[in-house]
Each structure stands twice: as structure tokens, then as C-alpha cells.
Amino acid sequence: MKLPLCLLIVLNIFYCSAQNVTNNVAVAENRIIPGAERLNAYLPLIKGKRVGIFANHTSMAGNTHLVDTLIKLGVDIRVIFGPEHGFRGTTPDGVKIMDYKDEQTGILVVSLYGSKRRPSPDDLKDVDVLIFDIQDVGTRFYTYISSMQEFLETALENHKPLLLLDRPNPNGFYVDGPVLDMKFKSFVGMQPIPINYGMTMGEYARMLLGEKWLSEKANAIHAYNITTTPTADTPFHFMVIKNQSYIHKSKYVLPVKPSPNLPNIQSVYLYPSLCLFEGTALSEGRGTDMQFQVIGHPDLPKNLFSFTPQPNEGSKSSKHFGKVCYGWYLGGSPDEILSKTGNKIQLNWLIEAYKIFPNKDSFFIKSNSFNRLAGNDVLINQIKEGKSEEEIRKSWEPKLSEFKLTRKKYLLYEDFN
After folding, report:
1. Which 3 state secondary structure label does DSSP give 61?
2. CB 242 within 8 A of CB 227
3. DSSP secondary structure of 168-203
4. Which CATH code for domain 5-241?
5. How many CA atoms lie within 13 A of 29 on its CB side?
6. Beta-sheet strands, E only, within 36-107
7. CA-CA distance, 131 to 151, in Å (whole number)?
């Protein structure tokens, strides 16, 4: 159902004025404005159309959820798609989710982290245009980029225009880690990229398109990558609504925690290095309020830092619940964390933990789990063989340097070097 012309004019005037005010504030404060807040850039493309939106609790436009904002503007949202952790972001890691109706809006939420990972043609039959808006943290094994890829493929395969509302990457100021060996392709690593790839969702989507890493059918569709302000008459298959005032040197602090076990920017900064511990016997702090800021195990030396994981909202079950773990506290202020990581994946914590672990045969819980996170079966053997961090880093070449060159082709924002 199309909105009356007079209402469209009023909405346009209101949001153009609001956006001008927002833009002036951004210039004055140099505030980074995510794509979702740039309503005047994409509202003309969805007015009067039936919309399907892939979103979660991070999909905020200022202090209001994007779905609520669009509904108040009269946008006809027919279906919401939800990723891992669910649309409202309250489901613990790895828990499968069924379809349900959102209590606050009454709109059907189709789970793409349950019985299926992409919308079916039936899910899209009443949709004219799709929107993707989810906050990423910039690591290969954080599953939202995998969800985005499958959503993009589905949009192209079903000839549904897709708007990607870009958001800053809080780890977008460096590129590091082993490039995925495609023999280890999984939902925690679908493409040959390093652990920390230094791109926003919009930039990464452009890489998926440009390198033809999508399905054969999706690759055959010509996709426009329009980065200027679009108009209501602009044809597109895929479009990125850019961030404003963002560059790759930006240290963007997320206004909303991206998932239950990444509670603050410190955990986000440490996540690229500490997520590898998920494939080991050590706790990564799940069941504490220091998730991805502590690592430990009950059998490590008792003179180390101690913590006791317990079931909580983010982790109903995990390693060593109710047991005192001994290890390392790696937290601190954001600046202290950045000083520790040095804009690179830290391997010394993994090397040291393995070195002092009493039962080496049980350090890696399941080799397949660790290898999927690492993106290869080389790192696990390098750790076992006692290789130094310098030796391990050398083995990441030349693929890491080749990725960095490829990455440059798809950037939408000024790079960090």
C-alpha cells in the first residue's frame, strides 16, 4: 500500500531537516554516523514498498531500534530475519532458534540460525526490498558475515533489491592472521580471508561480489554498488549506505554490546586473539563478567589469576562451571588493551598456555573445532612443535599480503595506511 503523497512530502521534509541537524552535529563533534541513521539516503527507496529486514539488537538508529523507527514512519515491514543470538540479541552463543512473532511489534521473525540459514522463496514472496543492518566486530569467525553472505546470495538469486546499511568495524584498524584454507570452510569461516580482515560489512560485501565468491547463480547477477546518495528512481540490485565520518583509523566504541559474551570494547579488542581458545580446554571467561578478557583452567598453576565461571545470561553451559580456573586476566582500559595487542593477533598467550598446561594431549578439545577457528590444520601443529610467534607469522605469508592487496580494491573509507 502506497502512502499518500502529502504524507510522503511531510516525512521527506521532516527527515531531511532531521538529517541536516544530525549532519551538522557530526561535523561539529566528528561523530561517526552509521548508515542506519542516514534515513534521507535510503528512505525514498523503501517508501510504499513491502520490506524484509535482517536485524538484531544492534540495529539502532540513534536511541531507537531501526525497526521501530521505520514502523513509526509508515514503512511496511512484512518480515524480520534474525541471526545467531536472535533478533533481540538475548539467546546464548550457539543456541538454535525457531521462528516466532516479535512481542513488541507482532511481526514474524524468521530465524536464520535454526533449521535454516537463508530465507526461502516463500519467506520472500510478500517482500519488494530487503535491508541488512547488523553490527559486526571484524573477525572471520564472528558468524554475522557468514549470515550476511547467505542473505546477499538469497537476495540476488531471488531478484530482490538489497540495501546494506553499513556500520563501523571496531577492529577495522588492522589486518592480521592466517588466511583461511578453503578445506576448512564452515559457518565460522566461509572465505579465504584472515582472522582480522579490516573491512566493514559493506566493504566485505563488495569483495564477495567483486571476487565472485557467492553462489554461481548470485555471481551471474549484475549488482550495482552505489555509494553516492541514491534517489527514488535509482535502480539497484545491491547498494551500500555508507557510514559518515568513519575512516579505518577510527577507534569506534560500540554503543550496544554486539552479543551476550562481548560485553564491552575491551572484549571486542581481545576477541580476535582469544577466540582461538574456544578450541582448547581453557575457559575464555564465559560464565563471568569478564568474557574474552580472562583465560584459565583448573589445572594451571595456582599462583596465577583465578576466576570461577557460573551459568549466566550469556552462557547457560560452558567449560568448568563451578570450578576455580587459574590463568591470566588480560583486561584493562581500552588503551591498555590496544597496547597489549599491538594491532595484531596475539599468539604468545596461546603458546604460553600450551607450554605450561600439564596434560598436552587434552589441551586441544577437538582438533576440528580449533582448526575451523584457525582456518587451517597448520597452527595446531606449530603450537605443539613449540614454534615461536615469529616463525608462525612467517608461515602466514604470502597469502596475508596478497589478501591485503585484494582488500584495497573494495574499500569505501580512507585506510589506516
Report:
1. strand
2. yes
3. --TTTT--BSPPPPGGG-BTTB-SS--SB----HHH
4. 3.40.50.12170
5. 9
6. 50-55, 60-61, 64-65, 76-82, 100-101
7. 10
How do the domains of the chain map onto residue ranges?
5-241, 265-386
Does residue 10 have a pLDDT over 50?
no
Cα torsion 39, 41, 44, 46 to 10°: value is: -70
Residue 46, pLDDT above cutoff 90: yes
Q: What is the DSSP string of 129-146?
A: EEEEE----SBTTSTHHH
When pLDDT is cut at 50, 70 and 90, the band that residue 222 belongs to is confident
- Specify the pLDDT at position 27: 44
Residue among 181, 393, 102, 142 at smallest CA distance from 278: 142
Q: Does the pLDDT value for residue 371 go beyond 70?
A: yes
Closest of 242, 293, 307, 285 to residue 265, by C-alpha? 293
Q: Rounded to 10 degrees, what is the CA torsion of 60, 63, 65, 68?
A: -140
State the residue for C-alpha cell 560485501: 205
- CA end-to-end distance (rounded Å), the chain: 48
Of 45, 23, 20, nearest to 33 by C-alpha is 23
Rounded to the nearest 10°, the torsion over CA 80, 83, 85, 86 is 10
For residue 275, count other CB atoms closer than 10 A to its CB: 21
Reported residue count of the chain is: 417
pLDDT value for 29: 57
Q: pTM of the full predicted structure?
A: 0.90
For 17-32, b where at least 16 C-beta lie within 10 A, e where not — what string? eebeebbeeeeeeeeb
Check whether 159 has a pLDDT greater than 80.
yes
